[in-house]
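# nightly structure sweep
# worker-07 picked up a monomer target from the shared queue
# config: single-sequence mode, recycle default, output format = structure tokens
# input follows
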Amino acid sequence: MKTLKHILWAFLATAVWAGCSDDPTYTKGAEENPDNYGVYFPQQDSPVEVEVDPADEATVTYKVRRAKYLDAITVPVEITTSEEGILEIEPITFGPGEQETEFTVSFSKAEEGVKYTCEIRIEDPRYISLYGPRATGLSFSVIRAGWEPVTSADGTHTKGKWRDEILSNVYSLSSAGFNPYPEIEVEIFQRSDIPGYYRMKVYGDEMLKALAGGPVNFQGRDLYTFVDARDPDKVFIPYQSTGLTLVTDDGELRIASNVSENFMMDESTGQYGTLRDGVITFPAQSLLIELEKTAGAFYRANRDGMLRILLPGVEVPDYTVTLAKSEPADGVVNIRASFVADARAMKFSLFEGVLDAGQTSLAAQDMDASKNFDGEIEGSGTIRIENKATGKYTLVGCIYGEGDNTMRDYVSISFGYIAKGDQRPVILTMGLEATNEFAGQGITPDNSAKFYAFGENIESVTYGLFRTDRIEGKNHDELLDAKGLKFTAEQLASLNDGHFSTMFTGLNGDSAYTLLLRAGNGYIHKIIQADYRTTGRYNPALDTFEYTDFLSDKEQPSLDYLKSTSWNYYAVDYTDAKPVRRKIGQVTIEENAEQSSQDLPVLNVKGLSGVEFQEGGAILGMYMPGVSTFAGYNGALALFSDQNLTTGIYEGQTVTMGFVPLENTNVYFGYGMFMGAVAEGYLYCVPSPAALEQGLTFSFLFSGSPSALFSLMGEMMLVDPAKDLGGLSSAALERIAILRKQAVEAFTPRNFVELPRFSGAAGRTPAVTARMPENLIVAPMPASAPSVKRSAARISVMPAVPAPVSAAGEFRNVGIRAEKAEK
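# output follows
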């Protein structure tokens, strides 16, 4: 498989830049020698912080270059070292015509465990350019230090674990695979002469894969990460570079504990970690991260306190017990307790009312101290609650380990109990009605419905609006679990106050819709349904479709029809500020004579990317009807992308086109989408059923490069201009499409990969079923109170508003190393 990786996209906190004022005085500098040799120190391959094992050769070699290289020269240098007589430095000499040379530094006399520093400067103006950008000095340090691997007490474990919460506090990726707290195994070494001073290789390929959920390209120097745990009560991470560059403009990432060993600050205010029983942890927000581009500005890291290091052989016990409740029935509520391996017993008591987090904590501590409980359960099982008065209760459980009388954790669950013979019905009324009160804005019964609801003591609501034909035979609970929106606290308050009303817009004409609403009053839940049909005329351009909506093979367009029509092109471009389906332009289809064969007509489909290419940029479309390769599949075109055949030139850049699935942000090449007729004159793109069988739901067409995104298209539809009903309404164009939540803001691909070859074969009929239908509620607009009426049920609704992405480094601590004060 060919792979082209890309740097992970970052969402960074805004840097605060210090202003500079002009200096009114000016002093003329020294004159430049026009005949100087232009000697300088280039970027070095050898490290400037040199560490060698005492058994290894104590040398390091550095490079020197010059601009004028005809003569043989020896370069005079000024050398400053931290201790005389330790470093032996070769002369810097160039032979005739030699543009680059090397010199070796030897330090065999260095004492083990002592760091020595050195600065080499070239100051003679005959040999250097005084005002050029090139470095005329080199600073480095050397140390001879032995390291030995850390193993478990029994010698059976040689690796520990590092759970990270540094990278995710600065860089984030909105994908299913993103893990903000990645944990990897690491080999841990301890300085032979300094017990408790550790090093390990943390920030490399394995860590980034664990963070992003897949391959990530990066620039890295394969550095060790050092941890100073000499004092188990004052563990800290020395100021150091991770060696990682994830975004070129940012430069390398550097990390440090916020302690006096790294910064000018009072030791008492230092935020140190601890080493307990082989586990190193750090307080929340005690670590700082610095970007090379903004040196001196530090951002808080480890914000949730999740950074953890386990020494080899250490296992952290997990005493988790999860509780789940049933709804009350016939005077009984069942509480299901699920134990993990280290939890051995849960001793519990029942309290009246709904306890908050603070009350629960105090209750658990009191129970453990008094050892007074209502019951006990050992291992996973069910606790049966009965013979109580109707009301709200909270079960609090103290969790214990094997043969352990010390509470390791606690857990609680609140529930409503209904005594046998009592009733606590869900009281809620809801409905959908047609209204013209917003007709002046283009919102009419042809494309909208007014939703109203009111109730009593409703504590939770989950709701969704679906096309009626799409939910036939579906389990309504499962559908609402997967696609439902939840009421906010404010919406619930309006509902219980006697009025909640909103407009559902962007509906299609002459179409049937079903509103499902699940309401709970703290005791039981109830699902209520309301059906509604819009007026007007059905417009396919307003709808979304699935593979199962494709018309039959006989109703798919002919090859000549495809090629002879300049198709109106509607799609959602997720790079838009408001991603809604709009008219992008036109798409033309022509035969690709070079790729076509008698058995497989191949077409160039131009315009799907929405980018005006200077050259190339057509997706390949394999004609499907009657072609043996696609026997058993339905549709008009199988869209195909290739790293070479489907590239284009845009603004002087080579642009790659490929398909992106819902499951990740990789860009794939191959048969990613099928296009088929869903109505007369309407073609729609759906995820390839062949790829669905491989677990990939291709919903987006990507156009871009490894460093730039030009378009990310979805819900693509081609319409014969002669059949086009006029496209989208102005109201639909204005609404923000929350439905498009699968798209990633500031999307950048993480990886370019190839799909396995198409697996279609003659006579093969794949089993393709409809996916879970989409909830059609998109940014409801407020509406006036409904008129008084009777209704069989009631409910309230409003879509959940996505929580804003928190910027990395919400608090910025500005500081620099020891000689400068922290701001």
